[in-house]
Amino acid sequence: MTQNKVKSILISQPKPEGKSPYDLIAKKFNLKIDYRPFIHVEEITTLEFREQRISILNHDSVIFTSKNAMDHYFGMCEKLRIKVPETLKYFCVSEAIAHYLQNFITYRKRKIFTGEQSLASLVPIMQKHEGSKFIFPCSDVLKNRPNKSLDESGLDYTKAQMYKVACSDLSDLKDVKYDILVFFSPTGVKSLIENFPKFVQNETRLAVFGPTTVQSAEDFKLRIDIKVPSPKAPSMSMALEQYIKIANKRKR
Question: Of 148, 166, 184, which residue is a domain's last?
Answer without folding.
Answer: 166
